[in-house]
Amino acid sequence: MRALLIAVLIALLAAFAIAWGIHNYPGYVLIAVGKTTFEMTLWVAGFLQLLALVTILAVVWLVGRSLRLPFATRRWFSRFGGRNANGLFNRGLIAFAEGHWEKSRKALERSARRSENSLIHYLVCARASHHLDDDKGIEKYLQMAHQEAPNAYVAIDITQAEMQLGTGRYEQALATILRLRKSLGKQHPYVLRLLVKIYLGLKDYRHIEKLLPEIKRSAAFSDERYKELLVLAYQELLVAASNKEEAEQALTEVWEKVPRKWQHDNDLVYRYATLLASAKLDQRAVKLIQGHLRKYWDDRLLEVYGQLVSTDLKQQLMVAEGWLKERNNNATLLLALARLCMRLELWGKAREYYQRSLGFARTSAAFVELARLSEALGESDKSRDYYLQSLAMQGSVLELPLPSKSLR
């Protein structure tokens, strides 16, 4: 408020000084242009000069503003278009998340034309086309993405490989990923994960085996996942080897490739033992199981052990009875011992092991085998009872009336 009063006071003083000057010192100015003359006081001439200066400055300012107008207009439209493109992009992403693929694709394609970086727009359009089963659309948008950002070939190829993998086109996906690995080297963890998925889809376990050292070093795979892939790969390779003509040699070659640490894995040893048994290589299977069970126990191996016939059945039985000292309540071990005794024609001992096994676990197999043994020993009533109990293990038996006398 004080500043305003001071400004008003200064303006009044200036007006008074100008009025006093005009009255006491009018001055005189004569301007002659050809035969025309202009006469005025000094103060009027000064005012006209001031007015002319202000007019010139105003004209210069207006011209400058006019020259900048197209740039300002263009900038305004650019900002408006950018805001509109962002809105379309957001609507396209929301539609994609909601599963409205066609709506998403249209919005993203429109927003791509107004965006300075349309790569993401085209990649999402390609994924929307994938959900629409539009192969031509996929090819179109991936090509547009490549034209927009040729240096982003990694993102483009990964997108393409994922869609090929999703539709089961493993051979095409493999070609895409191998091309990408050739340019990137072996340092991209996600590309490695995609490659593993492709080989699993192709059931190409030989190549998965070759990738195992790289999988172990990669941060893209946990230790648990590495173990799953290793066990799966060698299990399948063992199965393939067992189907060859020279099964024994083929199985041996695969087993020797298994890292020594994993030759004690229960799942791998069990698969190897069952395949040896299927190939009639009982002696090797017996040695394998005996060696493994010294340190790593697995009841599944006992099931296989009881079905094997080694060259020395007595020794095979003696080893198994040694295990019984620490596991005398193991039903699977007792059943294996009973079966070995049957092969050695130790009928009384076999019956004892069968009965002890059934005391800990009532299994249909043990009942049937004991029934057959009892029948062979002339114990028909016991045999019939064991058979009935075996049937009861497989399902309920109705208590229906039976004839009291023979119909003969």
UniProtKB/TrEMBL annotation:
Bilayer topology: Multi-pass membrane protein
Compartment(s): Cell inner membrane
Chief subcellular location: membrane
GO CC term (a single one): plasma membrane
Pathway, per record: Porphyrin-containing compound metabolism; protoheme biosynthesis
InterPro entries associated with the record: Heme_biosyn_assoc_TPR_pro, HemY_N, TPR-like_helical_dom_sf, TPR_rpt
Chain segments annotated as transmembrane: 43-64
All residue ranges annotated as the HemY N-terminal domain in the record: 27-131
Keywords (A to Z) from UniProt: Cell inner membrane, Cell membrane, Membrane, Porphyrin biosynthesis, Transmembrane, Transmembrane helix
GO biological process, any: porphyrin-containing compound biosynthetic process
NCBIfam families, alphabetized: TPR_hemY_coli
Summary of the function given for this chain in its UniProt record: Involved in a late step of protoheme IX synthesis.
Name this protein carries in UniProt: HemY protein
Organism: Sinobacterium caligoides
